[in-house]
Amino acid sequence: MPQLELSPEINFHSETYKDAYSRINAIVIEGEQEANDNYIKLAELLPDHKDELIALSKMESRHMKGFQACGRNLQVTPDMEFARNFFADLHRNFQEAAAEGRTVTCLLIQALIIECFAIAAYNIYIPVADAFARKITEGVVKDEYSHLNFGEKWLKAHFEESKAELEQANRQNLPLVWRMLNEVEADAKILGMEKDALVEDFMIAYGEALSNIGFSPRELMRLSAYGLASV
Fold first, then answer.
1. If we measure between CA atoms, which residue out of 223, 218, 212, 95 comes closest to residue 154?
2. Contact indicator for 107, 185 with CB cutoff of 8 Å
3. Cα separation of 55 and 210, whole Å?
4. pLDDT digits (tens, 9 = 90+) for 80-108
5. How far apart are CA 32 and CA 115, in angstroms?
6. pTM reported for the whole predicted model
7. What is the pLDDT of residues 52-85, one digit of tens each?
């Protein structure tokens, strides 16, 4: 895993930092809100797991409040309109899949792609965060691994009948991650987060999740290649 040392040059109260933080902070707040809503919808799609999924949704809501506190601590107003646009395509794809009862696609988007995206971002952010945000983020990232684990376990148990839909959902949604990373590259760099490290951490987490579900190394290479040309 790429490691970034805390840079003494980062001025958490500079206008440049706070401007970039207004978008990054909004993204994590919106990401946790999306996750909250998505797990509530998954609880409808998977009634046998309703209690566990509702518990996950409540956890995401607590994370959102923690990240809102991080913004207030730096006296930054999050740019929520930017964040909603940032997640718009993944949001739409999840909503369409849920409406059509495509539970496998919903799980890939939320429990694999979004969770792996969050884990990568939080792990890269922690070493360069201000002290308040670091403490909040360290607590959040531990929870995200349990959310990833739910998706892995369910998809592994239903791998054979889910495989074709997983491949299609990956083909549709993985390129969106690369576009999102490109969109936030400049702001992330101001916060001390390099895009190459984000890409590497995401690919490690996502690849491990797909492997745990049942995909072979050859299949992982093919699945991971979608959209990489745009990175």
1. 212
2. no
3. 24
4. 999 999 999 999 999 999 999 999 999 99
5. 10
6. 0.91
7. 999 999 999 999 999 999 999 999 999 999 999 9
